[in-house]
Task: inverse folding
């Protein structure tokens, strides 16, 4: 480690990290402070500011009619996403990991990664048009098996819109999660497998009692990523349903977007952003304090 | 007894087929005419069947049996004309059927592709330069406040995008950056460098001290240590960071959609969405071609840099 030798070197150090810090100050920290500050005002872009204290927060939490349904939708979508993202890729990773030939294991992992070259917007539009649309794949299959009465616009029918959004990506074998779980399974020491074999733990029993506890840190990681992503994500809803029909698929992020860029209620929109930030922080802190990873549990025991 | 794995393979292959099926239909529909897609959205491309059957007819000396329908427009009226006989003309007609969608989509997307390539490469370069310089300073030098400054940088990872979206738009509007490349590149570098600094700093800290001593004895100054010792060693990490940022830029939709309303500055993601809401949306053949075209750059990256691509994909999600 090189220690500071002269004032000149010190100045050179500050100068070298200055571009990084300047960019962060302008494009990360300044907007963060603006978000908190603006949330206490009522104003339009370029208009006069009125200090309203906590009124924006009170309005949003207590009297806004969209709050309840949008948080419910967010919770449902996030819960479904957690369920499928933790189960399907883990099972697929386990199946791949159990194969004897490294070549096969590699090819399967690659195959599930191919969709990641398609831009996210394209995937969402493809699902909206090709699969869930009026003349889409789901309706074609229903017609061909004689279940024509179920045919509908899956994203425009109020009864199915939210569930249809949750079904995007079926069969949910996301390459990234498969990779993470596969890495976790590969890290299980051989001695554990040998001990399991001695205790006659095989098949599903071994998977539930031995593999799952040992990939707990991967489960925790994906759990947190999905929660943080779920609270923030509204792009795919904006693209596919715009929150409709009615308010059936509204989520808080989309309501924030609408308030800022459709209704020009910038202060109100900022307060929604702060509320979502607080919820994300809540989950992050809970995660850091109470969910201990497998390694930590092993160290403790 | 040798254990077989038929069940595992059966389940996995079903999974692969279900995962890739939508993309098969995208490829298939991209080479079909709109008429074909309207009639049956999931049929096999007629043009491929025709190419085979016409070639068989030609090879068996029955060229005169070739017959196909050409769609022409005469003002408002749409005319269908049956032509026959000439193999070369028939093939050229099939070629046009297959490529019409691509030609149209490329006209719309060309500018967006150029923009996205420019923005993603500039961002990746900026992140690599700023990230490695700052990480190098934090890893190898002690100066007053260096520890605190490092944590200030890292703390940015805790700021979620949803909190800063609205004020960031106001900020760049105030700075007069709307509708430019800079409004994408500068914020992308600002947020992209953080993870790079985090990863590279721990990598640089792990480098052997002997290496630096040897270089110093050879008369290397601070800049040469960075440029000739540190950078060449971190090439694999830099590749992962570059790919991670390119992936991020290629997928970013909301920010470019909001801040760049001028068509001249659309990127792929916002351009595809705007295409799907314009009158092009009913030109299915062009839309499917557009989805395919927009996937080609990352597909090439995936094929030519599989290992860093996979690592970049994984670390990109850790950052989120």
Result:
């Amino acid at each position: 480690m090189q220690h500071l030798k002269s004032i000149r070197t010190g100045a050179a150090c500050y100068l070298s990290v200055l571009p990084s810090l300047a960019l962060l100050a302008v494009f990360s920290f300044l907007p963060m402070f603006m978000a908190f500050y603006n949330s206490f005002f009522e104003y339009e872009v370029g208009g006069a500011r009125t200090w309203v204290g906590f009124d924006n927060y009170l309005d949003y939490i207590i009297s806004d009619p969209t709050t309840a349904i949008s948080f419910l939708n967010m919770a449902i979508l996030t819960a479904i996403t957690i369920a499928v993202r933790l189960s399907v890729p883990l099972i697929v990773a386990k199946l791949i990991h159990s194969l004897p030939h490294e070549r096969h294991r590699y090819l399967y992992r690659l195959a599930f990664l191919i969709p990641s070259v398609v831009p996210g917007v394209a995937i969402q539009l493809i699902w909206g048009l090709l699969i869930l649309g009026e003349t889409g794949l789901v309706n074609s299959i229903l017609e061909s098996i004689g279940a024509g009465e179920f045919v509908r616009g899956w994203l425009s029918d109020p009864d199915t819109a939210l569930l249809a959004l949750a079904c995007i990506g079926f069969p949910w074998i996301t390459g990234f999660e498969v990779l993470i779980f596969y890495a976790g399974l590969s890290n299980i020491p051989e001695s554990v497998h040998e001990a399991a074999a001695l205790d006659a733990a095989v098949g599903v029993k071994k998977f539930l009692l031995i593999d799952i506890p040992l990939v707990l840190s991967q489960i925790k990681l994906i759990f947190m990523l999905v929660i943080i992503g779920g609270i923030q994500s509204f792009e795919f809803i904006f693209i596919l349903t715009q929150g409709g029909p009615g308010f059936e698929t509204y989520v808080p992020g989309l309501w924030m977007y609408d308030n800022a860029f459709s209704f020009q209620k910038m202060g109100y929109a900022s307060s929604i952003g702060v509320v979502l930030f607080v919820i994300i922080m809540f989950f992050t802190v809970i995660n850091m304090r109470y969910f201990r990873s497998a390694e930590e549990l092993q160290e403790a025991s | 007894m040798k254990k077989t794995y038929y069940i595992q393979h059966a389940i996995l292959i079903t999974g692969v087929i279900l995962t890739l099926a939508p993309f098969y239909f995208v490829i298939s529909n991209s080479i079909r005419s709109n008429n074909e897609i309207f009639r049956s959205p999931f049929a096999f491309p007629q043009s491929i069947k025709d190419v085979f059957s016409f070639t068989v007819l030609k090879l068996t000396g029955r060229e005169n049996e070739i017959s196909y329908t050409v769609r022409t427009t005469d003002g408002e009226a749409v005319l269908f004309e049956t032509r026959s006989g000439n193999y070369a003309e028939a093939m050229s007609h099939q070629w046009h059927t297959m490529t019409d969608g691509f030609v149209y989509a490329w006209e719309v997307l060309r500018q967006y592709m150029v923009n996205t390539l420019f923005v993603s490469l500039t961002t990746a370069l900026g992140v690599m330069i700023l990230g490695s310089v700052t990480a190098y300073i934090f890893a190898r030098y002690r100066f007053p406040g260096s520890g605190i400054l490092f944590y200030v940088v890292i703390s940015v990872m805790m700021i979620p995008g949803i909190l800063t979206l609205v004020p960031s738009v106001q900020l760049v509007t105030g700075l007069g950056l709307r509708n430019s490349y800079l409004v994408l590149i500068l914020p992308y570098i600002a947020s992209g460098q953080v993870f790079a600094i985090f990863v590279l700093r721990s990598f640089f800290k792990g480098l052997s001290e002997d290496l630096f001593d040897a270089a110093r004895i050879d008369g290397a100054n601070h800049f040469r240590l960075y440029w000739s010792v540190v950078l060449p060693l971190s090439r694999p990490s830099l590749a992962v960071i570059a790919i991670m940022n390119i992936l991020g830029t290629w997928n970013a939709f909301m920010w470019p959609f909001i801040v760049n309303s001028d068509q001249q500055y659309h990127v792929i993601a916002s351009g595809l969405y705007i295409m799907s809401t314009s009158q092009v949306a009913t030109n299915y053949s062009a839309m499917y071609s557009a989805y395919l075209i927009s996937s080609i750059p990352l597909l090439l990256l995936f094929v030519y840099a599989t290992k860093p691509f996979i690592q970049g994909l994984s670390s990109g999600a850790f950052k989120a």
Remarks:
- Residues 67-300 of chain A form a domain with the MetI-like fold fold (CATH 1.10.3720.10).
- Chain A has a mean pLDDT of 90.
- Chain A touches chain B through 89 residues (CB under 8 Å).
- Chain A has one domain: 67-300.
